[in-house]
Fold:
Amino acid sequence: MSNKHGPRPVEGERVGLKARKVSFSWEGTPLHWVPGDPFTTHTINVLHLLLPAGERWFVHVYRQVLPYIRDEQLRADVVGFIGQEAMHSQAHDEVLPHLRDQGLDPTPYTAQVDWMFEKLLGDRTLPPGRARKWWLLERVAFIAAIEHYTAFLGDWVLNADELDRRGADPMMLDLLRWHGAEEVEHRSVAFDLFMHVDGNYRRRARTWATAFGALVFLWQRGVRFFMENDPTLVDGRASVKAFYLSGRQGTLPATGDILRSIPTYLGRSYHPSQEGSTAQAVAYLATSPAALAAAKRAS
Structure:
C-alpha cells in the first residue's frame, strides 16, 4: 500500500507538530467583526460551520489509517496532525454560541454539514478486505484534497493585511491566523499520507473534483444562509460578484488565485511544501496571543 516515487518535498519546510490548547473569549466581538462589511464577515464565518464536523471527521478517518503507516516520521506527523485538527474543531465550535447570542442560529445549516460528514462520508457496513480498504483510501484522498485548500486559506489569512486595515476584530483575526498558521505548518501531512498508503493519480484527481465541488457548494450555501438570516440586514444577499470584488480588495481570497490552485494540486510534480512558508507560520505562532497563552498554561 505504499508509494515510494511521489513528488519530493521542499527541504526545510517540515516541522514537528504539536497541538496548542488555545482558548478565545467572544464577548467583545461584534456580529460584523469586519466593520461595515457583513459579506466578508459571513463568508469567513462559514468556516465556523464547516470545520467542527469536518475536522472531527478527519480525526476519525486518520485513527483508522494509523495501522497502515509504515514510516515512523510520517506516523508522528499524523499523530500531531490529529491533535491539531481536534483543537481546531473545538475552537471553531465555541464560536457558534456567540453567533446564536447575536441572533444567528446556525443549527439548520450545521445539521446538514453533520449529515454529510457522519453519514455520506462516514463509515459504511462493508465486508473486511478490499471493499473496506477502498473506502478508507477514498476518504484519505478526499482529506488530502481538502487540506490543499485549508493550507491555501491559511496562507491567505496570514497575509491578509487588508483585514487589519479595515479594523477587523483582533480576537477573530487571532483565531483565524492561529488556525491558518497550523494549517500551513502541517500542510504536507495529508498529501504525504495519501502518497504513502496509495498515491494513485486517478484517485487523487477524482477526489479533488469531488472535494472542490462540495466545498464550493457548501460555502455558497453557508454565505447565503448567514446573509439571509442576519437580523441586522433588511435584504441580505450573497453573490459571485460580491465575492470577486472582495477578492480584488483583499478582504477575501482572489478568484484568480483560487482558480490557479486547481492545476497546482493536479500537477504530477506537486507537493504541498511548494506552497506557503513554514517559517512565516511558526513566526506567527510565536506571537499569537492565544498560542502564547496556551504555552504559558502548558508550562
In short: DSSP finds 13 helices and no strands in the chain. The chain has a mean pLDDT of 94. The two ends are 40 Å apart (CA to CA). The CA atoms of residues 152 and 261 lie 8 Å apart.
